[in-house]
Specification:
The complex is a heterodimer of chains A (about 150) and B (about 775).
Chain A (H helix, E strand, L loop, with lengths): L1 E7 L2 E7 L5 H6 L20 E4 L2 E4 L12 E3 L7 H12 L9 H13 L6 H7 L11 H14 L2
Parallel strand pairs in A: 1-5
Antiparallel strand pairs in A: 1-2, 3-4, 3-5
Helix pairs in contact in A: 2-3, 2-5, 3-5
Chain B lengths: L23 H5 L15 E7 L5 E7 L9 E2 L11 E2 L11 E2 L6 E2 L5 E7 L2 H10 L1 E6 L6 H4 L15 E9 L2 H7 L2 E12 L8 E7 L4 E6 L4 H11 L8 E4 L15 H11 L5 E4 L2 H7 L3 E12 L5 E11 L11 H10 L8 E9 L14 H19 L3 H8 L8 E2 L5 E2 L4 H13 L10 E14 L3 H6 L9 E7 L5 E5 L8 H13 L6 E5 L16 H28 L7 E3 L2 E4 L2 E4 H9 L14 E6 L7 E14 L5 E11 L6 H20 L31 E4 L17 H4 L1 H13 L8 E2 L3 H8 L2
Parallel strand pairs in B: 1-14, 10-31, 12-13, 16-17, 22-23, 29-30
Antiparallel strand pairs in B: 1-7, 2-6, 2-8, 3-7, 4-5, 9-17, 10-15, 11-12, 11-14, 15-16, 18-19, 20-28, 21-22, 21-27, 24-25, 25-26, 28-29
The chains are: A alpha+beta (about 150), B alpha+beta (about 775).
Bound molecules: FE2/S2 (inorganic) cluster (2 copies).
The site of one FE2/S2 (inorganic) cluster has 12 residues of chain A, from loops.
């Protein structure tokens, strides 16, 4: 067992975790933040993406113990202006159907926008390569990211 | 946000609007409630031990001595508690296979359940499951549908003489005469490989038995909560349907894969009834790959007979489908080949038709429905042969198709296979799609790239009723949908319905329909679905029927409620009920108006203002059964433009156009989303997705890293052209459209690649189209 201290959505949390516990299982289990979803548990689908120290990470592959000292933001904690714009754009452009991929998509999309890569379709599509959506064909997701990038670039 | 149009609504202002979805807010906040998100006190987890062998005799299962009492449940533990699953089809040629809820004596596919293990959490349950040692005595595995038909392949099921679930065939028209008249005879042997719905959320089930009330509650990621409940009551002993409640919470995609009755659901129910705590099983992706239903896997031979002037005279087709190890309930594996043979004619007319449809058992995961059912494969066969026949005659493929299409004025049209088309303008869809995809684009391709254009034309039977389901031999006829509409004393509208929405946006579309009739904004309407206790009985969301059937039910219930509201308002406004208009959240009479909430208050709490001959409360149940039950036919033409890299065989989609007609569009945003999502799955099937098995029956693609679903870089923005030919048979003139997107792409992409490579004498015979196959075929 390992003692860890993390910041989750801005709040400090300390606890003891099994070495084999994934960050996703900690988030969804003890922390009851079920907005983070598991689509494959082998690092391909991106449904489990959360922000770890400002970077999107596969929470299914990352051991909770490895997150010691990190600041983690899940969909439930994404409040900034960019996140709110993105939420509005996801709705306007119908970027979600079943909603299962959505929290992971939001984490990746925010990262794309922050890195200034949201201005052309081909780049957005390439950057989304690590997130699977089985419902939408990605059309609305790409449009939503483009929309926010255009809105926020002078 | 364009979702608020509150104050100045008039009738019919909401149907047809691209309103944003009411579902989105909870998902965007991370507040969706999927089955794995449910938290119940005392819950314990189940992991299944699944067969590692494709075909074997199963001996005793050795349990470690330190396993806690009650942790391991093998088949004996369920004796007398559950019955094997039997999927019936009322057709003489069909032979059912019993699907054991847990394997006993024999295992017939990798992934079949051998034991259940119960522990405090999933990880501990898996730890113990891994230490169980079942004794397997391997048997030869049948891994290919053609192998299944060989005389040396022993029957997989007791009492069977061979491995055929069902075979049927028919010849319509004067076949020999048409063949004799034809100038060209073009044959192709084709394969469409095995794929799966592959929703991003895997399956899952939570079961809790309440000893006080005797009620068993199951939360299941399913598309059909009511039918699952009916079937569970048949499968379980010691409980009645009345005492079972099935809740389908937020479901993370289904596409047909979550419409079957699965053994896990029965096992969890039986376990919960014997345990003092709730139990949970959340499928992992490996389990999903080997035990959730697979689909398609056709071996086809098709021949077209045509004149040199371009008249299609006759078609001869043979479908052979690999149905997997067991017949899943309720569709049975035969649904795929049977449907393919009946829909093959698509938008075309010809004089004679001969088909044979055969479904066989193999040692592979059972086959069930997946978006399109039979149609992607039928359209693949038909459109490939249309393309090749046009080439053989030397005619433009669009012209050849146009020449043989059913004309709009011929509706209602009975196809040579006996389907009754209600309406549609297929030539115009094809003309529009062709103009759009052929519009001059960028200049010449580099030397090592070949560009091609291809089409896939289809019709899609949707929202068919009892007569059609009965004709197919379905034990349940999907004949109606129900809606209960209530207005509470404060004026809020609550619609509950028996369908289930798992991404289709029905909470929004149905709210738009209700909002129009009741004169309130759609975002004041709450739609509840997926709970057998809260919602009226219904068939669930399958077969592209929900919007038309549940929409008809909601419309009917709201009309009846509106009539009642008008009477109450008229009484209080001192006017005739016919003069009252419901709009803008009010009942408006010639001389004044009453807000809807005031009318509702009268109906419940101020009965002194209610006419004596009006029943109190605003609460109506209405069941919609379509007046004509042969279905409303959507139609579409998919057009693909591809670039084939001649050095690598890699295919890139350059452009994709969908010209489609689903009748009246209720919400264009949602309709376009359904089309784009379906096309993505169809392109996956055209270029990427397939299961494979080795000769021992071991699946070789069991992760999302080997079974490739399309990602954003592989796809393009689908350009959609709408045409609205209203159905005369449905309430809004709407037709279903959930499946259409997935039907056309395999045909359109295969034809585009064939067009690109025609100069090299290469044409596509198999989907998915693999770079290595093209590379091999293009080698000098
Ligand atoms: S669940 Fe982590 S990548 Fe799929
Ligand atoms: S919305 Fe269902 S997986 Fe993306």
């Amino acid at each position: 067992m390992t003692d860890i201290a993390i910041t989750i959505n801005g709040t400090a949390w300390e606890g003891t975790v099994e070495p084999r516990l994934s960050l996703a299982d900690l988030i969804r289990g003890e922390l009851t933040l079920t907005g983070t979803h598991l689509g494959c548990e082998h690092g391909v689908c991106g449904a489990c993406n959360v922000e770890v120290d400002g970077v999107p990470m596969r929470s299914c592959l990352m051991p909770a113990a490895a997150a010691d000292g990190c600041a983690i933001t899940t969909i439930e904690g994404q409040y900034g202006e960019m996140a709110e714009r993105l939420r509005a754009a996801f709705t306007t452009h119908h970027a979600l159907q079943c909603g299962f991929c959505t929290s992971g998509m939001m984490a990746t999309a925010l990262d794309i926008l922050r890195r200034g890569l949201g201005r052309d379709e081909a780049t957005i599509r390439r950057e989304l390569a690590g997130n699977i959506c089985r419902c939408t064909g990605y059309q609305g997701i790409v449009a939503a990211i483009l929309h926010v990038a255009q809105e926020t670039t002078p | 946000m364009d979702s608020h149009h509150d104050s100045n609504l008039s009738n019919s202002s909401q149907v047809g609007q691209p309103f944003t979805r009411l579902e989105d807010r909870r998902h965007l906040a991370g507040q969706g409630g999927f089955v794995a998100d449910l938290r119940l006190p005392g819950i314990r987890d189940v992991a299944f031990l699944r067969s590692s062998m494709a075909h074997a005799r199963l001996g005793p299962i050795a349990v470690p001595a330190d396993a806690p009492a009650g942790a391991v449940w093998t088949a004996e533990a369920f004796h007398g508690l559950v019955k094997p699953i039997r999927a019936v089809l009322d057709r003489p040629a069909y032979r059912p296979s019993d699907q054991p809820v847990m394997a006993e004596g024999t295992v017939r596919h990798v992934g079949e359940i051998v034991a259940a293990v119960l522990a405090d959490n999933r990880a501990l349950a898996e730890d113990l499951a891994e230490r169980l040692e079942p004794a397997y005595d391997p048997l030869p595995a049948i891994t290919d549908p053609e192998q299944a038909l060989l005389p040396e392949s022993a029957p997989l099921h007791p009492g069977w003489a061979d491995n055929v679930y069902m075979t049927m065939g028919r010849t319509t028209g004067d076949f020999d005469a048409m063949v004799a008249r034809a100038d060209v005879h073009v044959t192709r042997h084709l394969r469409m490989e095995r794929v799966a719905a592959m929703p991003l959320e895997t399956r899952g089930c939570v079961a809790r038995f309440d000893r006080g009330s005797g009620v068993l509650t199951l939360w299941i990621a399913t598309q059909r909560p009511h039918l699952i409940r009916t079937m569970l009551a048949e499968q379980l002993t010691g409980i009645e349907e009345r005492d079972i409640r099935v809740i389908a919470p937020d479901v993370g995609g289904g596409f047909g894969g979550k419409s079957n009755l699965y053994p896990e659901e029965i096992l969890l129910a039986a376990m919960a009834m014997r345990l003092p705590h709730p139990v949970r099983w959340i499928e992992d992706r490996w389990e999903h790959m080997v035990s959730a239903s697979h689909s398609r896997q056709h071996v086809q031979t098709i021949t077209a007979h045509a004149t040199k002037e371009g008249e299609l005279l006759a078609v001869d087709v043979r479908f052979l489908v690999d149905g997997g190890a067991y017949a899943m309930r309720t569709s049975t594996p035969a649904v795929e080949a049977n449907m393919a043979s009946s829909v093959l004619p698509g938008p075309y007319k010809f004089q004679a038709y001969r088909f044979e449809a055969t479904t066989v058992a193999t040692n592979k995961t059972p086959v069930g429905p997946f978006r399109g059912v039979g149609r992607p494969a039928a359209v693949f066969a038909m459109e490939r042969i249309m393309e090749e026949t046009a080439a053989a005659i030397g005619m433009d493929p669009v012209e050849f198709r146009l020449r043989n299409m059913i004309q709009p004025e011929e509706h209602p049209f009975t196809t040579i296979s006996g389907l009754v088309y209600d309406s549609g303008d297929y030539p115009s869809l094809l003309t529009k799609a062709a103009q759009s995809i052929r519009a001059p684009g960028k200049g010449d391709a580099p030397a090592n790239i070949a560009i091609g254009i291809g089409f896939g034309c289809y019709t899609e039977q949707t929202a068919h009723g009892a007569q059609e389901w009965h004709r197919r031999g379905s034990p349940f006829v999907y004949g109606f949908e129900a809606a209960r509409v209530r207005i509470d004393p404060s004026g809020g509208v609550l619609v509950s319905t028996g369908i289930q929405s798992h991404g289709q946006g029905l909470e929004t579309s149905l709210a738009q329909i209700a909002g129009d009739v009741l004169g309130v904004s759609y975002d004041r309407v709450r739609v509840v679905h997926g709970d057998t206790e809260l919602c009226p009985y219904g068939m669930g969301t399958v077969a592209s029927r929900s919007l038309v059937m549940a929409g008809g039910a909601v419309e009917g219930a709201c009309q009846r409620l509106a009539a009642k509201i008008r009477r109450i308002a008229a009484h209080n406004l001192d006017c005739a009920a016919d003069d009252v208009l419901l709009a803008g959240g009010e009942a408006q009479g010639p001389g004044g108006s009453i807000p809807l909430d005031a009318v509702a208050r009268i109906a419940y709490l101020e009965l002194q203002k209610l006419p004596l001959d009006v029943e109190p409360a605003l609460d109506i149940l209405y069941c919609y059964r379509p007046p004509v039950e042969t279905g409303a036919y959507s139609s579409g033409v998919h057009a693909a433009k591809v670039a084939v890299d001649l050095d690598s065989g890699h295919v890139k989609i350059l452009d994709f156009v969908v010209a489609e007609d689903c009748g009246r569009v209720i919400n264009p945003l949602i309709v376009d989303g359904q089309i784009a999502g379906g096309v993505a799955q169809g392109i996956g099937q055209a270029l990427l997705e397939e299961f494979q098995y080795d000769d021992q029956g071991q699946p070789t693609k069991v992760t999302l890293a080997d079974y490739l679903v399309p990602g954003a870089p592989e796809l393009v923005n689908v350009r959609i052209i709408h045409q609205e030919t209203l159905s005369p048979f449905t309430v809004h003139g709407a037709k279903g459209l959930g499946e259409g997107g997935a039907i056309g792409p395999p045909a359109a992409v295969a034809n585009a690649v064939s067009d690109a490579l025609r100069q090299f004498g290469v044409d596509v015979r198999r989907v998915p189209i693999r770079p290595e196959d093209l590379w091999e075929a293009l080698r000098p």
